[in-house]
Amino acid sequence: MSLFNQPFTQKGFLKLPWQGTSFANGIHPEDHKELTEHKPIRRMPFSNKIIVPLSQSIGAPAKPIVTKGQDVMRGEPIAEAGGFVSAPIHAPVTGTVSAVDELVSMPNGSKTPAILIDTWPSSDQAIRYLQPRDTKVMSADELVKAVQDAGVVGLGGAAFPTHVKMKAPKGKTITTLVANGCECEPYLTCDHRTMLEQTDNLLKGLQLAMVTSGAEKAIIGIEDNKMDAVEKIREAINKQQLTNITCEAVPTCYPQGAEKMLLKSLLGLEVPAGGIPADIGCAVFNVGTLAQIGELVPEGRGLIERIVTVSGPGVSKPGNYIIPLGTPLPYVLEQVGAIEKPGMIILGGPMMGMSIATRDIATTKGITGILVFPPEQLPCCNEPEMPCIGCRACVEACPMYLNPSMLGKLADVSRHQEMMDEYHLMNCFECGCCSNSCPANIPLTQKIRVAKQSIRQKARNAR
Q1: What is the mean pLDDT of the chain?
Q2: Nearest in space to 85 (alpha carbons), one of 64, 60, 65, 62
């Protein structure tokens, strides 16, 4: 079996789609969450140097508003949004700016400008850049502006600027807001711990998002392997008498956390092909994102850190850590006792995350997990790719009703237009179920990803 399946399928056998879920197909991988699911959130010490990339979200990069040699306070704005679909950036530490527009590596191998800050060793790193406000008297527009000023982006991995989706798109109405607490990726538990330890912030952020979106009700959807979080949130909802908010458990099945799958499971509604949740009157937010909104907006401060699950068989101190944005990866690995020569490091989860080729990167707003694997325990199989045997395992696994086998064959001969026109290529969200299921070791997800990138690049070149 090829991509991401040997450690995640019991005894090496393919697990057929679990029919207990209310969306079609999907897979049920071993989750390995026991490494960190009971580890309380802990704060990681500050690194003596912080590297803050200016591109930390979907959209335009932020523009620096500080200069070399300038002293900055923790929480102070250091870069403004580069457009509407962009997010400002705040100083993760108190220190001195040592460089601006320094080119640094990103996880995908590209280079991006960054602001470098030397941390003051004598500082207590208290957050003093605060502008407290009473959210109860703020209008919907004022709340959206506060979320934008805080630099909040989707913390489930997509890193889409949150303020953009805080209000219903023009011509559409949001009736139901969904908080996504599924966290279906193996190993990751940062959302789980957030729901347990930051319940009040989560509910506060959810209520603020309901105000801005105009939603009449909200549902928190959580996979049923996290019933402690379900019970904790239900208890808080009852205590606060939040009659328009409910918390529902959904079957544990990957990729339950994909917003289209979750909407199908919770509401029985399907987002149209090429559409967005607003097309069916919904908006979906990650629970970690909502918890940050609930904490940051009333305090009037920016997003300067996030909870990251650091785990894997190559880590001696796995856990859920609050890590300042811009913390160098080598420093993180040192703090958690990672092995010196790992065979693979993945940012995010093993199904949709990214294997990195260099450690010369820093943490950003979109990094949910850092997974370390020894050479002898890689989360993928090194066996050679074999010809497709026509077993349809990939078709049975695909939650989007696609034919990954045919898409892979067309990708091999670069028939990208046919992939898009006849086989709905762009409906694929690269969940990895097909690669995980393939007994012929065919890296279907990677083939599809490359084809989509080629089509997008061709479209950009044609402008």
Answers
A1: 93
A2: 60
